Amino acid sequence: QVQLVESGGGLVQAGGSLRLSCAASGRTFSSYFVGWIRQAPGKEHEFVAAVSMGGENTYYAKFVKGRFTISRDNAKNTVVLQMNSLKPEDTAVYYCAASTESSWLSAMTVSSYDYWGQGTQVTVSA
């Protein structure tokens, strides 16, 4: 089992940047895919980005490619989502989540994630 805590959300103007961090507890953190999933008001959860267990593979939703970068440090049990060129439509609660699945398809599927953090609010003003 793994516990996840997000930080780094906030209010930023369009075109700005934010860095979200996910701190994990548990000695088996490197056994999980870790992803970021967001939920805007009135909308379903939406996959944003994921990183494989060792950090060698990353996956992104089409709408964030080239703007967001996900990375992990297993020695520190952390995952970071660097968000640049933010747009008002990026406004949402961002969740860090962990999955025991190991395929790229599962990594991009919201329902495959077993453990979730409490979320952090990201608000992008126009």
Describe the structure in your own words.
By secondary structure, the chain is mostly beta strands. The chain is built from one helix and eleven strands.
Structural key phrases:
126 residues, mainly beta
Q: Average pLDDT across residues?
A: 95
> Percent helix among the residues?
under 10%
- Tally the helices: 1
Give the CA-CA distance, first to last residue.
40 Å
What class, by secondary structure content? mainly beta
Shape estimate: globular
Bin the strand percentage.
Answer: over 45%
Compute the CA-based radius of gyration: 13 Å
Overall strand count: 11
Poorly predicted regions are none
What composes the largest sheet?
7 strands, mixed
**What is the succession of H and E elements?**
EEEEEEEEEHEE
Question: Which SSEs are present, and which pair or pack?
Answer:
Blueprint: E1 3-7, E2 10-13, E3 18-25, E4 33-39, E5 45-51, E6 58-60, E7 68-73, E8 78-83, E9 92-99, H1 104-107, E10 115-116, E11 120-125
Parallel strand pairs: 2-11
Antiparallel strand pairs: 1-3, 3-8, 4-5, 4-9, 5-6, 7-8, 9-10, 9-11
How do you describe this structure in short?
The chain is mainly β and 126 residues long. 3% of the residues lie in helices and 49% in strands. Strands 2, 4, 5, 6, 9, 10 and 11 form a seven-stranded mixed beta sheet that branches.
